[in-house]
Amino acid sequence: MTADVLPAALAPAPRAAPGYWGGVWRRLRRDKVTLVCAGILLLMLAAIVFAPLIAPHSPYQASMLRRLKPIGFPGYPLGTDELGRDMLTRLIYGGRLSWYLGITPVAIAFVVGGLLGVIAGFAGGWLNMLIMRVTDVFYAFPSVLLAVAISGALGAGIFNAILSLTLVFIPQIIRVAEAVTTGVRTLDYVEAARASGAGALTIVRVHVAPNVLGPIFVYATSLISVAMILASGLSFLGLGTKPPEPEWGLMLNTLRTAIYSQPMIAILPGLCIFVTSICFNMVSDGLRTAMDVRA
Amino acid sequence: MLLYLLRRTLYAVPIALAVSLVCFSLVHIAPGDPINAIVPADAPQEVVDQIRREYGLDKPLPVQFGLWLGHVVQGDLGRSLATGRSVWSDLSVAVLNTLRLAVAASLIGFAVGCVLGGLAGVFQGTWIDRVATGLAVAGVSVPHYWLGMVMVVIFSVELGALPAMGAGPTGGGAWAWDWAHIRHLVLPAVTLCVIPMGIVTRTLRGIIAEIMGQDFVNTLRGKGLLGRTIFLHVVKNAAPNALAVMGLQLGYLMGGSILVETVFSWPGTGFLLNSAIFQRDIPVLQGTILVLALFFVVLNLLVDLMQTALDPRIKRA
Question: What SS3 state is found at A293?
Fold first, then answer.
C-alpha cells in the first residue's frame, strides 16, 4: 500500500486559496496597533449608540448648585460643566454629533467625489478638463479656510457645517479618484475588454470600479480624522452646532472659561476628539498597509 | 525652463480669478439680500440706495463681479459693518501678525520634522522610527485648538511662565523682535507647529527611506565614504521635496491658524475672521478670505517654480 492508491476521501482536502480579502484580513489580524484602535472606535460607537442606556444623567439638566465639580465628585465621575451638567453624560452624547459631523461629509464626498473623479479619469478629454479645473479652484483654498469661509457666510448650523465640509473634501477625493482611474484605464485588461466589445459602462463597472474603489476608500478613511477636527473646530468657533446641544468642539469652547478653575475638566472634550482622531488615522494607515494601497 | 516659468505663472491667473469669484459669491450665498450684508441694518434708505448703485447691486451678477473686482484690484475691499473702517486697514495689520505666527510655526515644525523624519528614515524599523512616526501621527491627529488650551493650562496656569493671550504690550499694532513680544509668540507658534511637524516628518521619512535604498548610496558606502559625506548627498537629494512641503505648509498655516489665534487671542487674520463671523460682518469675512486665498495661490506658484529651479531632475517645459 503506497500513498498514491489512498482513497480520495482520505487525502487532505485542498484548502481554498485565500482571496484578496482573505489576505487583507490576515494582515489586519496581525497588526496589533490597528486592532486596538479599531477596538477603541467600536467601543466609542457602542457608547454613543446606546447613550440613553449607559449615560448616568440627562445631558441637558443644569444645576447652579453643582457647577464645575471636580473629577470624582460623588455621582459625577467626570465632574460637571460650567452649567452643572454631568460631564460623562455630555461626553457620551457629544460623541453622537461629533461622529455624525465627522463622518457624514466624508461619506457624501466619497460618493460624489469618487463618482466625479472616476468619470473624469475614465472619460478624459474635455470632461476631464472641466472637472479637474473646477477642482483646482477649490484646491487653491487651504481646507480650514474654505470650511470657515463657506459656513461663515451661510451662518451657524449643523446642515451648513456638513455642507461646507463636504465641499472641502469633494475636490480632494476627486483628485485621488481621477489619478487612480487614469492609471487603471490604460492597463492591458481594460484595452482587452474594449477590444472584445464591452461598452464603457460595463468596463467601468466590471474592470475599473473594483480596482479603484480600494484606494479611494482608504484615502477617504484618512480624511475622517481631519473631518472630525475640522467639524469640532467649526463648532469651537461658534459655527456648526449651537448650544445647548452636546458636541465636543462646542463643549471645549464653552468650557474655555473654566480653564483656570477646573483645567482637567476643560480639556476633557478635546481629549475625546484627539483619541477618536488618532484612532481613525491609525486604522486608516493599517487599512492602507493591509490593502496594499500606494497613494 | 523659462517657458515653464511663463506658463505656470499664466496658469495662476485664471486660478486667482476663479478664487476671487468664489470669494465674491460668499456675499451671495449668505442668507438674505446681499445689500444687508454690506450696509448696517439701521442705515437710512438713501444710503442703502446709494451703496446699491455704487456697488452695482442693481446690475446683473457678471457685471457686479466685474465692478467688485475693479474695486479689489485698487485695494478697496469695502467697509467693515461693525467698525465702519475700511477692511484693508484692519486686514493689513492682521495679515502681518498671522504671517509672523505662521512663519515661526512652520520654521519650528520644519526643523523638528526634519530631525524626526531624517532619524526615522535612516533608522527605519527601529524604536527611533516608531517614536518619530508616532509623534508624527499625533501631530496630524491632535485638534490643535485643544493642544493650545493644554499648553495654556501647563505653561500659563500651572507654571506661570508664558502669557496665555495677546501679542505683547502694543497689542499687535507694532511688533518688535524683543522678548516682551516674542514670549507671546512662543505658545501659539509651538501649538501651531505640530501640524507641519507631523507632515514634514512623514514626508521626509518616506523620501529618506527611498533615497537610502538607491544604488548610489550603496556605491558611496562601497567607496568607503564616511557617514557625514553620505548624509550630505542624501540631504541634497531630499531638499527640494522637503522645502516644497514646507512652503505649502506655510500657506496652510496662514489659512488654518484661525482656531489657534482664537484660543490665544492672537490679533491676526484668524481673530479678525472669528469676530467677523460673530458679528456677521460679511465684508471683513470676504476680504480676509480673499487675501489669504490669493496668498496661497501665489505661494503655490512660488513653491512650484522654486522646486523646478532647485531640482535638476525635474524637466518641465
Answer: coil
Average pLDDT over residues A52-80: 74
Q: What are the C-alpha distances in Å from B183 to residues A252, B46, B94, B130, B150?
A: 25, 50, 19, 33, 17
Cα-trace Rg, chain A: 25
Cross-chain residue pair B149–A259, CB shorter than 8 Å: yes
Cβ-based neighbour number of residue B73 at 10 Å: 9
| CB-based contact A56:A45 (threshold 8 Å) | no
Candidates A153, A259, A273; nearest CB to B26: A153
b/e string for A179-218 if b means 16 or more Cβ within 10 A?
bbbbebbeeeebeebeeeebeeeebbeebbbeebebbbbb
State whether A138 and B22 contact (CB < 8 Å).
yes
Considering only A74-78, B65-69, B262-266, which range has the smallest mean pLDDT? A74-78
Average pLDDT in chain B: 82
Residue partners of B135: CB distance under 8 A and separation at least 6: B116, B197, B198, B201
The answer to whether B167 and B184 are in contact (CB under 8 A) is yes
Q: Which of the four pLDDT bands, split at 50, 70 and 90, describes residue A259?
A: confident
Average pLDDT (A65-74) is 72
Our separate counts of H helices and E strands in chain B read 13, 0
Assembly ipTM: 0.84
How far B16 CA sits from the closest chain A CA (Å)? Answer: 8
Percent of chain A with pLDDT over 70: 91
Helices (H), chain A: 20-30, 32-49, 51-54, 87-123, 125-139, 143-154, 158-185, 188-195, 200-202, 209-236, 248-254, 263-266, 268-290
Residue A163: partners with Cβ closer than 8 Å, 6 or more residues away: A150, A151, A154
User: What does the DSSP assignment read for A177-216?
Assistant: HHHHHHHHHTSHHHHHHHHTT--HHHIIIIIIHHHHHHHH
B19 CB neighbours in chain A (<8 A) are: 137, 140-141
Min mean pLDDT across A54-58, B169-173, B306-310 is at B169-173
Task: Name the CA radius of gyration of chain B, rounded.
Answer: 24
Using alpha carbons, list the distances in angstroms from residue A36 to A40, A46, A269, A282, B17: 6, 15, 21, 9, 48
Claim: this prediction has a pTM higher than 0.95 = no
Neighbours of B232 (CB within 10 A): 13
What pairs with residue A76 in β-bridges? A73
- Give the residue with greater pLDDT, B181 vs A12: B181
How deeply is B13 buried, as exposed, middle or buried, from its count of CB atoms within 10 A (0-12, 13-18, 19+)? Answer: exposed
Which of A148, A150, A154, A228 to probe the B interface (max B CBs under 10 A)?
A: A148
Query: B286 to chain A: which residues are within 8 Å by CB?
Result: 153
Cis check for the bond before A215: say yes or no (omega within 30 of 0). Answer: no
Among the partner-chain residues A140, A267, A269, the one whose CB lies closest to the CB of B15 is: A140
pLDDT attached to residue B173: 64
pLDDT attached to residue A2: 47
Residue B312 has pLDDT above 60, yes or no: yes
Cα–Cα dist B95/B270, whole Å: 9
